[in-house]
Specification:
With 220 residues, the chain is of the alpha+beta class. It is 22% helix and 32% strand. Helix 1 packs across helix 2. The N and C termini lie close together (6 Å).
């Protein structure tokens, strides 16, 4: 089995990432605010209070809001990247896609969809940077661009940067779409590197019929 695939005995798979310093797993099972509050409270303990430039209550509220927002479309994984000062910088969401009775599309077919897809009131505001690469989890296409989104009530606009990956793990029918975005345009180079480093750790873990991991670590 090629690295990144799922063995034939598995009923499903889960995407796993090695979350380094600053990353907070905000994946919710049910998506409720109560669940988000519990998750945020546990995540709060990972921050050094001596380095925070925001109040703990403000940070807790931000963690809760991000968890609820990022899980609104039931992703298979959601996370955010925070600076040591407690300021949230990157939103990171992972989804899987497949079409019943249809072959999995190619990287070339999916690439233009990555550019066009996005939140409501958002348009691409720069020439996208497109690259094709081979990740440990499988072949992928990466798109990076600046986007412009309308502010509330439709007055004015806000710029943000996004990076999207479509990953095609061998041995499974789905392809994986990873979306990361941030508003601190002046930090784009640094935040793009942080995002790329996290995506490089992606691996597919096989699950049994009960959703339990069959084996830990990457599938060989």
């Amino acid at each position: 089995m090629t690295s990144g695939g799922v063995p034939s005995g598995a009923d499903d798979f889960a995407c796993r990432f090695d979350l380094g310093a600053g990353w907070v797993d905000l994946t919710l099972q049910g998506g409720s605010k109560g669940e988000a509050t519990g998750l945020a409270g546990a995540a709060l303990d990972a921050f050094n209070p001596l380095e925070l430039q925001v109040g703990r209550r403000e940070l807790l509220g931000d963690l809760i809001d991000r968890a609820v927002d990022l899980n609104s479309d039931d992703p298979i994984f959601a996370a955010s990247y925070y600076g040591k000062d407690g300021v949230g910088l990157i939103n990171f969401v992972v989804d899987s896609y497949s079409e019943e009775d249809e072959p999995r599309p190619s990287r070339e077919e999916v690439q233009p969809l990555l550019v066009r897809s996005g939140p409501d009131r958002t348009v691409v505001a720069s020439e996208p940077e497109v690259s094709y690469l081979d990740l440990p989890a499988g072949p992928a296409v990466r798109v990076q661009a600046m986007a412009k989104s309308k502010r509330m009530l439709g007055f004015g606009s806000r710029l943000n940067e996004f990076v999207k990956y479509a990953v095609f793990p061998p041995g499974i029918e789905q392809f994986i779409v990873i979306t990361a975005n941030w508003q601190d345009i002046q930090l784009t180079d640094e935040l793009a590197q942080v995002t790329d480093a996290l995506v490089a750790t992606m691996r597919n873990v096989p699950l049994d019929a009960n959703g339990q991991e069959i084996a830990s670590g990457p599938v060989e």
